[in-house]
Amino acid sequence: MGEEQLVTLQPGQRCNKWTITKKLGAGAFGAVYLCTHGNLTAALKTEPLNANPPLLAMEAQVLQDLHGIKEGKHFTKCHDIGRDTQMDPSGRSVTFNYIVMALVGKSLDKLIEERPGRRFTPGTAIGISVQMVNAIRALNEIGYLHRDLKPANAAIGRADENELDVLYLLDFGMARKFKRED
To answer: Which domains are assigned to the chain?
Structure first.
């Protein structure tokens, strides 16, 4: 990743107005944290300032373009996007980009791991497939290709929000616009 520095945030640390609660996961391009602001709990994704390609910028653009569409229930809400600087453990300052999105439930890959025989019932598979097709169609109708469809990039809603029957399509960093406005 060259000179790109990944930031590590600790519970209790603040990223602008967001307080980090815990780390949810990490990958080659950054990490995802559980965060809060007032009564709102959300997911905060980070990426290095000079990430190449800059995935969070594309993710924010796609989520903005999806806001308010008919099939919008399949996409998370973007609460905040920005840039912050933190000190790493060695005392160097690290500037990074972040995006804060509505929290969703478990990803399909995690749900598959939990299932007996690592497979869904036919009825569940059909329900997931129909919602996935609707989500992909909605994304395509506003001119985007996802380009990274996999079980880890889809999740169900949260039980505490009564959304267990809602499928969310996630992670639009690799998405590309294929349709021009004119």
So the answer is: 14-102 (3.30.200.20), 108-177 (1.10.510.10)
